[in-house]
Amino acid sequence: HDASPPLPTATMASSSIRSINPNAEIMSKEAALFMNINAAKGLQGVMKSNLGPKGTIKMLVGGAGDLKLTKDGNVLLKEMQIQNPTAVMIARTAVAQDDITGDGTSSTVLIIGELLKQAERYLNEGLHPRVLVEGFEAAKKASIKFLEGYKIPCPGVEAPDRELLTCVAKTALRSKLREELADKLTTIVVDAVLCISKVDEPIDLHMVEVMHMRHKLDSDTRLVSGLVLDHGSRHPDMKKHVDDAYILTCNISLEYEKSEVNSSFMYSDADQRERMVAAEREYTDDVVRQVIALKKKVCDGNSKGFVVITQKGIDPISLDMLAKEGIVGLRRAKKRNMERLVLSCGGGCINS
Predict the structure, then answer these.
(1) What is residue 276's predicted lDDT score, i.e. its pLDDT?
(2) Predicted pLDDT at 5
(3) Which of 23, 144, 157, 265 is most enclosed, with most CB atoms within 10 A?
């Protein structure tokens, strides 16, 4: 006899059954919304007190116990350890503001916090978030339209408006530093930017280097319209001051060269060793003599100085030979300084 086929069993997946991490916190969409708003309000509360010239300075204590005093919103947000994802997004807007404009980081965070605080009032009255977002979009378009009509044209690099640049720099700096220091740095900053600006080229801020002198005060800050090398001559007889000099920029070693592979010299008596040392020394001395010959060629019959700046080393014997000829020798120059020397003085770097 035929056995009747089994009845099909219907499997229903209930929408209310969910598989989640047992350690996770579950909250409704309304609670999640208000948690995000509270994160923005919390960030606003931290930043509110350090806005403007009368704002308070925050003291940040690192994990290793190091202290940092700052009023800059961007530094504060970078150093703070933020857990909430919404607060992290707000902190990113401040970083973007700092990258594009360089100022207004605290203001950005405060505006976002205030917008969300006002949005909370309408949400409590039952307004849908989508309607609020459309309102924000309309406000954004109106703001951009207002800014387009409010902005003033600014002359470019060809004819910079120094007064306008000074006002912009002063506005930004006075909210970060005390008044006397901010005013002093304003002049320095404007002069530095005008010094490196080139027509039809974007400004390269890497051409302005900030150097720290640990034994000086902040009021001793000054602008050097030139290049400051953080190393001096290593010979007591070399000049400390040279005017109107020829500069030889090179990447040549004026000392014993160690071989790149492990190698050794075998000798059977002291005479062989002396000859080997003399041969090594002769090669280095020959390079130094060529430099001295060049100096005599270009400086003969005039009072100009001669400076040798090399990325590699100059040993004491070579330094002594250069000092006797009145040549200033600087060794172990950084690569970035060599590139700037070529840009500021012209010429090229000699590598062989």
Answers:
(1) 80
(2) 58
(3) 157
As a whole number of Å, the end-to-end CA separation of the chain is: 103
List residues bridging with 303 in a β-sheet. none
- The token pair at 306 is 């001669």
Rounded to whole angstroms, the Cα distance separating 283 from 325 reads 19
Identify the CA nearest to 39 among candidates 78, 91, 2, 4.
91
- Residues shown for the chain: 352
C-alpha distances (whole Å) from 283 to each of 16, 256, 267, 277, 314 are 85, 9, 20, 10, 13
Q: What residues of the chain score a pLDDT lower than 50?
A: 10-11, 14
Task: Name the token pair of 199.
Answer: 């027509």
- Say what the pLDDT of residue 114 is: 94
What is Dmax (Cα atoms) for the chain?
A: 128
Identify the CA nearest to 93 among candidates 101, 291, 141.
Answer: 101
* Burial class of residue 254 in the structure, from the number of CB atoms within 10 Å of its CB (0-12 exposed, 13-18 middle, 19+ buried): buried
Query: How far apart, in whole angstroms, are the C-alpha atoms of residue 330 and residue 310?
Result: 6
Instruction: DSSP for 80-136, please give it.
Output: S---SHHHHHHHHHHHHHHHHTSS-HHHHHHHHHHHHHHHHHHHHTT--HHHHHHHH
CB 169 within 8 A of CB 189: yes
Q: What angle do CA 83, 50, 116 make, to 5 degrees?
A: 55
pLDDT digits (tens, 9 = 90+) for 287-336: 888 888 888 888 887 878 888 888 888 888 888 888 888 888 888 888 88
Give the HSE-up count for residue 312: Cα atoms under 13 Å, Cβ half-sphere: 16
Beta bridge partners of 247: 307
Instruction: Using the structure block, give the residue that is written with the tokens 């403007």.
Output: 52
User: Helix, strand, coil: what percent of the chain each, to 5?
Assistant: 50, 5, 45
pTM for this entry:
0.67
